[in-house]
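Researcher: Good morning. I'm working through a list of sequences from a screen, and I'd like to move beyond sequence-only analysis. For each chain I'm collecting a predicted structure so we can compare shapes side by side. This is the next one on the list. No need for commentary yet; just the structure.
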Amino acid sequence: MRWIVGLGNPGSAYEATRHNAGFMVIDELARRWGTSVAQNKCKALIGEARVDNQKVALIKPMTFMNLSGESVRAFMDFYKVKLEDMIVVYDDLDTDIGRIRLRYQGSAGGHNGIKSIIQHVGTQTFNRVRMGISRPKNGQPVVDFVLAPFAKAEQTDLRRMIEEACDAIEFALSHPFDQSMAKFNGKSD
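Model: Good morning. Structure tokens for this chain:
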């Protein structure tokens, strides 16, 4: 089974915030694949679909961002899935708004959700799709920035970025991740 983990925070107060870009991608994939992400299991909301003759799980951890690894570990242990079959999608301050970056290893880069996953799976090597949200301007605290909604002027870039992230994930389901990186990294430049 392939499994896609979108990072975010549960609750309507966080729904349209920058920190929930990962949830937005999961919701769009569910829409594309005609499924819902509503089963409450493994400290997450989970949905399943068949894509290109393979079973794919869509996962939205309900643990809040800083504890995302708890949900990832619970899913791994319950379903006996392989880490190399996981793709994590999340917001990234170091990538410009509207751009995505695919990686298969690296540090958390200050992202507490990724830090939690690394802690719970015991490695920095797993497939990732980073969603660009840019850095705050004018000295705005990072916490306030990531928990704020996307600005009206960012909506077009956001929509395009979600579509591109979904396209990259769909491509990665049937191609090696390094090919996916080569195809999609730099595409939005």
